[in-house]
Design a protein that fits this description.
The strands form two sheets. The protein has a five-stranded mixed beta sheet, sandwiched between helices. It has a five-stranded mixed beta sheet with strand order 8-7-6-9-10, with helices on both faces. The radius of gyration is 21 Å and the shape is globular. The protein has two domains: about 140 residues, Nucleotidyltransferase, domain 5, CATH 3.30.420.40; about 170 residues, Nucleotidyltransferase, domain 5 (2-Layer Sandwich). About 50% of the residues are buried. It is α/β, with parallel strands linked by helices. The protein contains twelve helices and ten strands.
Length: about 350
C-alpha cells in the first residue's frame, strides 16, 4: 500500500468530465497518457426512439448520472480527490444544457477541494485521444476531426498550438450519415449501420457528388450529397424501381470518405507534416480507415487513429488535453461557463 501511495505522489493525476452531448463520462488519467479509468454512461437507448438526441432529455440524464459516474471513475482508478492534480471539463462546443451539467460539477469540485480547474475544448479533446492510443505520438501532425457535429482539418503544431485550416460549411460528416440512415429507416445512431451495409454493396454503383473539390480547398460540405441521396431514393420510389440499399450505402459512404481522405492528404502536404491523425466518432468507420490507410501508405504519411471507445465522446480524451493545459498553467476560474458554439483555439 505504501508503494502504491508513493507512486501516486510522483504522478500527475487528472480527473475529467465530459457531458457535451449524450454521454456522461468521467475519467482519471495519469501523466496525460495512461488511462486509469474511463467511465461512460451512454444515453443511446434513451434517444433511439426519437431518432436523435433530444437536448432536454440529455440534460436531465446528465444530472442523474454525473455524480455516480465521477464516483465510479475515482473508485476504478483507486484514488481519491486528494490525489488529483487538476480537474478538466468540456465547456464547449456542444448542447448548452448538457455542457452546463459537467461545468457546474467540475466547478463545485474545484471550489470544494482547491484543485485547479481546466476548461477543455471538446474538439481539441478528440484530437488528443490519439495521444492516449499512441504514447509515442508527438506533434506536429495534421488532424482530421470528423464526428456527428464537426468536420475539421487542424494543423497541430504543438501540444497547445493549433491552426484550423478548414471545416464544414453545413452538415458534419457524421450528421450526414445519421440523416441518410434515418431516410433509409436504419436505427439511430445511423453511422455504424451505414458502414455495415456499405460492406455488402458496390461503392461505384451510384455516382453521388463530391463537394468543394480543388487544390488547397480544405472546407467541406455534405448537405448537397445528403440531398442527392434523398433525391435518388425518392425518384426510385416514385418510379417503383427496386432499390439496392447496400449499393446506396456503399456509394454514399465512398463519396464522404473520398473527400475526407483527399483533403486530409492535401492539407498534410501543404503544411509539410508527415503524420495524419483521425479523431471523432466517424474515425471508427471501416471504409474511412481502409481508404485513409491505403492512401497514406502510398503517399508516405504515417497514420494514427484512436481505439473505437476513444473515438466517441469520452472523458479520457478530455483529461489528456487538460493535462497539457495544466502543464502550462492554462486554468479557468469559477466564472467558467458553457460555450455551445466554441471554436477551436478560442477561449
Amino acid at each position: 500500500m505504501e508503494q502504491i501511495q508513493h507512486e501516486i505522489e510522483k504522478t500527475c493525476l487528472t480527473l475529467a468530465l465530459e457531458t457535451s452531448c449524450d454521454e456522461t463520462s468521467a475519467s482519471v488519467v495519469a501523466d496525460g497518457r495512461i488511462i486509469l479509468s474511463n467511465v461512460i454512461s451512454s444515453q443511446v437507448p434513451v434517444h433511439q426512439k426519437y431518432g436523435g438526441v433530444v437536448p432536454e432529455i440529455a440534460s436531465r440524464k446528465h444530472i442523474e448520472n454525473v455524480l455516480p459516474v465521477v464516483d465510479q471513475a475515482l473508485r476504478e482508478a483507486g484514488v481519491t480527490l486528494a490525489d488529483i492534480s487538476a480537474i478538466g471539463v468540456t465547456y464547449g462546443p456542444g448542447l448548452v444544457g448538457a455542457l452546463l451539467v459537467g461545468v457546474s460539477v467540475a466547478k463545485a469540485l474545484s471550489f470544494a477541494t482547491d484543485i485547479p480547474l481546466v476548461g477543455v475544448n471538446h474538439l481539441e479533446g478528440h484530437i488528443f485521444a490519439n495521444f492516449l492510443a499512441h504514447r509515442d505520438l508527438e506533434p506536429p501532425f495534421m488532424a482530421l476531426v470528423v464526428s456527428g457535429g464537426h468536420t475539421s482539418l487542424v494543423h497541430v503544431k504543438g501540444y497547445n498550438e493549433f491552426e484550423l485550416l478548414g471545416q464544414t460549411r453545413d452538415d458534419a460528416a457524421g450528421e450526414a450519415f445519421d440523416k441518410v440512415a434515418r431516410v433509409m429507416k436504419l436505427p439511430y445512431p445511423g453511422g455504424p449501420y451505414i458502414d455495415s451495409l456499405a460492406a455488402k454493396g458496390n461503392p461505384e454503383a451510384i455516382a453521388f457528388p463530391r463537394a468543394l473539390p480543388g487544390k488547397n480547398s480544405f472546407e467541406f460540405s455534405f448537405s448537397g450529397l445528403k440531398s442527392a441521396v434523398l433525391n435518388y431514393l425518392n425518384s426510385a420510389a416514385q418510379k417503383q424501381e427496386e432499390i439496392n440499399t447496400a449499393d446506396v450505402a456503399a456509394s454514399f459512404q465512398a463519396a464522404v470518405v473520398d473527400v475526407l481522405v483527399s483533403k486530409s492528404l492535401q492539407a498534410a502536404a501543404t503544411c509539410g507534416v508527415k503524420q495524419i491523425v483521425v479523431a471523432g466518432g466517424v474515425a471508427a468507420n471501416s471504409g474511412l480507415k481502409a481508404k485513409m490507410a491505403y492512401e497514406c501508405k502510398k503517399a508516405g504519411f504515417s497514420l494514427h487513429y484512436p481505439d473505437p471507445i476513444l473515438c466517441t465522446d469520452n472523458a479520457a480524451m478530455i483529461a489528456c488535453r487538460a493535462y497539457y493545459q495544466h502543464l502550462i498553467g492554462d486554468y479557468a476560474d469559477l466564472h467558467l461557463n458553457a460555450k455551445p458554439s466554441l471554436k477551436l483555439g478560442h477561449g
